[in-house]
Amino acid sequence: MKKLITLFTATITSVVCLGSCGRTQTTKPPQTSINTSQAETSIQTSNDILNDWQKEVLAAEGLPTEADQLTDAQLRSIQRIYEMITYLNDKYDEEFIYAETLYAYPRLLGNDYGRNTVTVKAAKDGFTDDYSDRSIVDYAEEMANDFMKDYFDSDQVIAFFRVNACDIKKNEVVDGDFQWKLGVSDIIFVNEDICNADQVEEFAVNYAKWLYEHELSGDHRINILQQYDVTSITYGEIADLYNTDNYKGYYDFLFDSLKKNVLQSEHLNGKRIQNDYSIDEFFSMYDK
Predict the structure, then answer these.
(1) Residue 28 predicted with pLDDT over 50
(2) Of the candidates 214, 133, 140, 217, which has an alpha carbon nearest to the alpha carbon of residue 175?
């Protein structure tokens, strides 16, 4: 059954990039850009008027170049695109080029503060998207949460995953092996009753062994909370938790690019510490 997709922003949205980066599609449109002298032109306040830059973008998209031939949504979008690219030119004194991109999210899942955002980009042979990334990240997140709950024999631990890089589909994962082709940022919350500041490193080492076994890359931050039911935490309130009296600090680690070292940092008991361990050194700290 085809999932319904809800537009995340306007009907037409845009991203911008520096230098020679531009739009690509099956038939390459004329390059459209705006320089700083053009940026000095005031943004059109009347919906009945389109400037030359806006008309070039519309023509490249195969849309009418007269305001009265556009839908209200298209007209609002082209005005917003021009406002955003003019803002960048004014702020950075650089030449920016419009790049066609669509942001959307599945209606049934919701946006979830940006975690479920799907990005569609024009490519040489049509379009590309990153929707499959979300399903494989959900799979990895579920595996990690199962491991943690088993480790502590408690539900007072929760992990939230967000993709950094993905070059693998879910059906390519064999026996839970991600082949170092998935990189995530995971934010973990654990109740102090089951993992305090003196215990978090042992948990981190065993979690790192689990990640290494499943060839799963990323940055892993373990946050300790006191007197807080972590099962009630949602992704949207994470930032707020760092500023509460319940928050006790964090322990963070990641593998280097060659998977030979562990870069570790922590802020616990009022102290900030950073370390660089070899994989063998880090893994040999604790055995369980």
Answers:
(1) no
(2) 214
